[in-house]
Amino acid sequence: MTRLSLNQITTKGWSLPEAVQGCVDAGIPAIGLWRDKVAEVGVERAARLCRDAGLAVSSLCRGGFLTADSPEGQRAALADNLRAIEEAAELGTDTLVLVVGGLPEGSRDLVGARGRVRTMLAELAPHAGDLGVRLAIEPLHPMFCADRAVVSTLGQALDLAEPFPVAQVGVVVDSYHVWWDPDLPAQIARAVDRIAAYQVCDWTLPLPADALLGRGHVGDGCIDFGALGSMVAAAGYDGWIEVEIFNQQIWDTPGEQTLATMIERHRAHVATG
Amino acid sequence: MTRLSLNQITTKGWSLPEAVQGCVDAGIPAIGLWRDKVAEVGVERAARLCRDAGLAVSSLCRGGFLTADSPEGQRAALADNLRAIEEAAELGTDTLVLVVGGLPEGSRDLVGARGRVRTMLAELAPHAGDLGVRLAIEPLHPMFCADRAVVSTLGQALDLAEPFPVAQVGVVVDSYHVWWDPDLPAQIARAVDRIAAYQVCDWTLPLPADALLGRGHVGDGCIDFGALGSMVAAAGYDGWIEVEIFNQQIWDTPGEQTLATMIERHRAHVATG
């Protein structure tokens, strides 16, 4: 349990104070925060709540959405990401997760959108570094390429991170998004020093009507967490393991029960290595 | 229009004789057949219908499902694929599309499943070559990795094809399955002489409740067919361009109308290169 973290989206029905208390009651030592939940109580109070409860903040979700093709859209994205970096620093986490954004409405220019991610990272990375925050590029499953993240593989995320100092830009390994990738072992091995976060949940079928909400508890699907965990460990990552689940049925379950299942599955499938 | 082919699934409501007549009426010179539709009339009659109508058979869909982990399952898959090879030869096409299959029920061994595809290909490829049929490995979008095809990228398909003579094993480039891949330009360039089929349809959102049925007419989504077509042409492919669409709304549309839309979109987006 020493590396387990609750990503707050997993207990979407809980406010930030409820999630903090839930972690304390369950003995979970860390929490990954979401900006909307933080905003409900204010950054300062959120930081104090976590600190007073003795909880580490494993990450802040999320910055990103960097693919706007208008100057105004890009300026707004920069401003919002600079705020997110400041919030991360104030909350005491060194990791800001970036979901980079999809294609602009009506666009078919995937190459252009990917290029804008690169340009925007160059603007943001030094500011993040100044505040001791690392931008963690999250490759999302290719089924989200059009509408959510034009970064679709770990290899692509590492290519984007490469020009920047390790302390400024890293990557997220999220089991749900990368498990299918035939190039995954090579890319995780290459990711030494770049893995900023390891997030887990399982691939379950059928996909629901809203494809965003198809993730299951670890152990309920077809991902081999033993193999994946070994690769991530071999790459030198020994940080938090965040459970991040988008699933309406799990969101409708009492939080205490979700945390109990999380812990049981963590012990059975993840913490065995 | 000289390279346009109707993949028969696009007009799912039509029997094989109806689809053949539809192509003739619309001036489409080729058809990609499906085994279930062929079986309804018998292979011999299906072959005669296409021949008498002057239609080329661009491909037969489909063989594959090679990932069974039981000896009986593997024997059954081999037998079925040998039959499919014979049917392809009898129908006068040199291309048998392979959807390789997903994980066996309850399995988390993706590496093992991928290994079985390799083994089974080695069994099948010489038989295909003997009959003048090429096995065309189709990488499917990674969202189908668990249940339909453990081959998820063009690079992976090319790796699988590489040990075999070009005449025995090739790959399918299907816009819907590969458009998101950041490695696509490099892999298409590498695919010289291995591209056995080029299939087109568009990525449209939102994904429907059944993720299999989300494909749209060319031009209705976010795929840049100009760029993709140029890459495929630069790799030396000058064969059929099959329109293959799984979409309930399009299946509910009269076939003549679907073919008219296909032709219009082909002229606007695909045949411009």
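The two ends of chain B are 13 Å apart (CA to CA).
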